[in-house]
Amino acid sequence: MDADDEPPRPALASVPGRPLPRTPRELFDALPPLPGLRTEVIDGRLITRLRDAPEHGQAAMRLFRAFIPLMDERGWEAFSGNVDVCIDGSRDPVEPDFVIAPVDCPRWGNRELFSSGLLLVAEVVSKGSAEDDRLKKPAIYAGGGVPVMLLVDPLTRPASVTVYSDPKEGQYQVTSTVPFGREIQVPHPIGFTLDTSVFEEVL
Question: I need a surface site. Which of 50, 64, 80, 153 has the fewest CB within 10 A?
Fold first, then answer.
């Protein structure tokens, strides 16, 4: 079959009054709700993944529970896999596994919290997200002004938790890593000692 004989391929067409998306952010905004899927813009790529296994969510909830006394003491709010974050500057949307924020954290629209208003974000590494969580997300969050990032990584040997802090010029200047079962200091503005043995039972 000649190229001229190929059947016509479907083409995107604009809706009157609604131009076609030109950027990953605009495409994200144009998507309908996608129940059961996690959608983010990472490094210029619109990524949609299936939700992870229940153990992944359990690890995020263990973080939530560990921080409850501190949040109650300081009047902070926390979210576990149910809030999007808008990265200051790029305006790219990401969905951390766990977030701590002040109650008056500024927002982009109704759902997304601005990254520069957050106190901490955390990612729990899974097979489908390992490269982005380990290599892309620290720079994304540092560039967005998030003061502290936690990376819970059950896929390393030994399984580990890393704390990133002191963001400057798009990079965290300080990192600290411990294997599961050890305590790790989560620095300012959190100021909390996390016992990472909470992850041993679920991951």
Answer: 50
